[in-house]
């Protein structure tokens, strides 16, 4: 999942970026409201964490403009203000949740999972395809009785494939949701990471779950039923 962080305080922005990246998210950072609005309208994000008080354009105005442009990804507002009227203003502008500073990264991650679940009503904290199970909270993956050791990027790629399963996901969609804005489009990194996943998920003796769909991308599909 790809998240946009809009925060003008460098230390807070760095803390958010590190914490979200460690949780497996691809993260882009905007230092002011104008940059946040530009990034949010030019890249596909799954969610946004947005400070209220920012230069150039405040967070409430950013969210209001995003909603006017029919951009519906969930937004969590951050603020050092604790007044009821400030929270109401953000929620009325189209924010999905509100978190007061200082905050715990654990709570932010839980709220982020919650707004993403509301965005995808069919989703839950555990995803399963055949004998492959992914736990979003524990950040673990099992196939059958075997625990798989995945990097954060591999985990994010597998989550995307499992969310779409059995439909294929294009390379473009993978890049947009698993990598951040600094991705080098001239590399073959998507194929490389698909191969990493295949090595771990489709081990010898097990029916393959990860399939190449020629001309489209990649799909995670359960093996065909047998009589």
Automatic annotation (TrEMBL):
Keywords: DNA-binding, Phosphoprotein, Transcription, Transcription regulation, Two-component regulatory system. Residues 2-116 form the Response regulatory domain. PROSITE patterns: OMPR_PHOB, RESPONSE_REGULATORY. Residues 124-222 form the OmpR/PhoB-type domain. Pfam families: Response_reg, Trans_reg_C. Residues 124-222 bind DNA. The modification 4-aspartylphosphate is found at residue 51. PANTHER family: REGULATOR OF RPOS (PTHR48111), TWO-COMPONENT RESPONSE REGULATOR ORR33 (PTHR48111:SF1). This is Response regulator transcription factor.
């Amino acid at each position: 999942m790809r998240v946009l962080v809009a925060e003008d305080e460098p230390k807070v922005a760095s803390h958010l970026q590190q914490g979200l990246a460690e949780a497996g998210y691809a993260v882009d950072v905007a230092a002011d409201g104008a940059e946040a609005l530009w990034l949010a309208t030019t890249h596909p994000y799954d969610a946004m964490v947005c400070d209220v008080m920012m230069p150039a354009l405040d967070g409430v105005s950013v969210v209001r403009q995003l909603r006017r442009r029919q951009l519906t990804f969930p937004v969590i507002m951050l603020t050092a203000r604790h007044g009821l009227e400030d929270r109401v203003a953000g929620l009325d502008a189209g924010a999905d949740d509100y978190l007061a500073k200082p905050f715990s990264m654990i709570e932010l991650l839980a709220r982020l999972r919650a707004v993403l679940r509301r965005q995808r009503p069919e989703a839950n904290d555990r995803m399963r395809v055949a004998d492959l199970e992914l736990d979003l909270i524990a950040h673990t993956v099992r196939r059958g009785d075997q625990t798989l050791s995945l990097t954060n990027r591999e985990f994010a790629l597998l989550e995307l494939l499992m969310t779409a399963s059995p439909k294929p996901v294009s390379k473009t969609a993978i890049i947009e949701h698993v990598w951040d804005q600094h991705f080098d489009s001239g590399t073959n990194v998507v194929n490389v990471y698909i191969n990493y996943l295949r090595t771990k998920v489709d081990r010898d003796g097990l029916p393959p779950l990860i399939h190449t769909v020629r001309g489209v991308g990649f799909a995670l599909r359960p093996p065909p039923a047998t009589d």
